[in-house]
Design goal:
Radius of gyration: 23 Å
Largest sheet: 5 strands, antiparallel
Distance between the termini: 50 Å
Order of helices and strands: HHHEEHHEEEEEHEHEHHEH
Number of helices: 10
Shape: globular
Structural class: alpha+beta
Strand content: 15-25%
Strand order of the largest sheet: 6-5-4-3-7
Oligomer: single chain
Number of strands: 10
Length: about 270
């Protein structure tokens, strides 16, 4: 049991050092409710076992160039789960009765994550290079990030884009090269109207399905008068529809594949892209 607790603290040490660029005694103390002496002992023990992973500084510990993770998975989702909930996702135990679909990780720059976190917490702008399918060449952006977004298959970051002159979602894996932390942002999350607006997405079983088939969908979800109502931020409506396999541009030829249809498309179309 004691070993499990120390391993969990070692995981936390590695996770913050790697993804945030540093970790202090205070952060370890606050996360686990331990004394300063215990935190000091944890770092000492970690460095004794892995002397080439961390470097001591006046502010705490930073990852060395020879850093080799021993406890963290290296997946961005593990860190962002902690960033959102302040609970540690430890995948060391796998139940033989539970399986997970494995999807290849997108390549994410650690330096970009560190800059994004710093910019969010300090409400500052960053100067970044970004690529997309429409602009595959490096495209300079001044971006004001405010929130990480998991769309199911990939991680985005939402914020104000000075090039677009609007709030946008950028795919984290498409940031390229080095990024630079700039001055204070004048476009905070409070100014993101689509993010602050909550809208209902109203779905109902595809009308082409039989009553028996519709009842199957009714057993899957808690319906209200035969409809499924999903309240979401307007900025996330497109991703919700995609996860529910709703194509607003055409009706799938097979109702068993379509399953649901969007009822209030006219009301929410202004938020879709």
């Amino acid at each position: 049991m004691a070993k499990d607790l120390s391993n969990k603290r070692f995981l936390f040490i590695e996770m913050l050092a790697w993804w945030q660029g540093s970790i202090s005694n205070k952060q370890l103390m606050l996360q686990f409710g331990i004394s300063r002496q215990q935190a000091y002992n944890d770092f000492k023990q970690y460095l004794n076992q892995y002397p080439h992973n961390l470097l001591k500084t006046e502010q705490g510990y930073i990852p060395a160039h020879t850093f080799s993770p021993q406890f963290i998975s290296g997946e961005l989702g593990q860190y962002l789960h902690w960033y959102e909930t302040h609970t540690i996702l430890d995948n060391t135990y796998q139940s033989p009765q539970v399986a997970h679909v494995s999807i290849p990780d997108r390549i994410v720059s650690v330096q970009i994550i560190r800059l994004l976190v710093a910019a969010m917490e300090q409400q500052r702008r960053i100067d970044v290079q970004y690529v997309s399918l429409s602009h595959p060449e490096n495209d300079g952006r001044i971006f004001h990030p405010h929130t990480f977004v998991n769309t199911g298959l990939r991680w985005h970051v939402r914020g104000y884009c000075e090039k677009s002159q609007a709030y946008r979602d950028l795919v984290i894996s498409r940031f390229k090269g080095e990024a630079e932390l700039l001055d204070s942002s004048t476009n905070p999350v409070s100014g993101d109207h689509a993010w602050q607006t909550i809208i209902p997405i109203v779905l109902q079983p595809d009308y082409r399905l039989t009553d028996a088939q519709k009842s199957v969908l009714g057993n899957d979800f808690d319906l209200t008068d035969g409809r499924l109502i999903i309240n979401t931020r307007a900025a996330l409506a497109h991703y919700v529809l995609r996860e529910m396999q709703i194509n607003i541009k055409m009706l799938d030829g097979t109702p068993e594949a379509q399953q649901w249809v969007l009822v209030n498309q006219d009301d929410i179309k202004q938020w879709l892209f």
